[in-house]
Design a protein that fits this description.
The chain is an all-alpha fold. The chain has 4 helices and no strands.
Length: 162
């Protein structure tokens, strides 16, 4: 075997390898193109199916599971809204009742609104007579209010509490 036969064999080997790589490349390109065209065809089919279903739903002719579920959700949402509105109404009514009771209680117990009434003229005369007849009036003790009325002591006590 000569050198030229080795060179020819080498070039034949390279040619066979190139052809083999070309075959694999063409096969890969064909597979990719096939997958792409099949994918595009499937996407078109899905869009047509979805558009036909949406057209039926829009026309109101098809009551499929999606529209039924949406209706159920809307009904449930309306029920929840009504439940919340009822709860708010009940809480508001309860708060109004409590506020009315507090207003009535404060109106009944508020001594500032009561008119200051002194003794009648007959009672004042009887008190003067008793004071004149008494031998001597004891000095006001710090523990018994120091000459202030019960109402004035109550006002002072409320003012001290804050």
């Amino acid at each position: 075997m000569s050198v030229w036969d080795g060179v020819h064999a080498f070039f034949l080997f390279l040619l066979a390898g190139s052809v083999l790589l070309g075959v694999y490349a063409v096969r890969g390109v064909r597979t990719s193109v096939t997958w792409a065209t099949e994918g595009l065809a499937r996407i078109g089919e899905i869009q047509r199916e979805a558009l036909s279903q949406l057209a039926k739903i829009a026309a109101g002719g098809d009551s499929n599971a999606l529209s039924t579920r949406i209706s159920e959700l809307e009904t449930g949402l309306q029920g929840q809204r009504m439940l919340v509105a009822d709860a708010v109404d009940r809480v508001t009514a309860l708060a109004n009742r409590v506020a009315a009771r507090q207003r009535r209680a404060s109106a009944e117990l508020d001594p500032d609104d009561e008119p200051e009434t002194g003794p009648t003229p007959e009672q004042a005369a009887a008190l003067r007579q008793l004071l004149r007849d008494a031998p001597s009036a004891p000095a006001a003790e710090p523990g018994n209010g120091g000459g202030t009325s019960l109402k004035e002591r109550a006002k002072l006590h409320r003012a001290q509490r804050g």
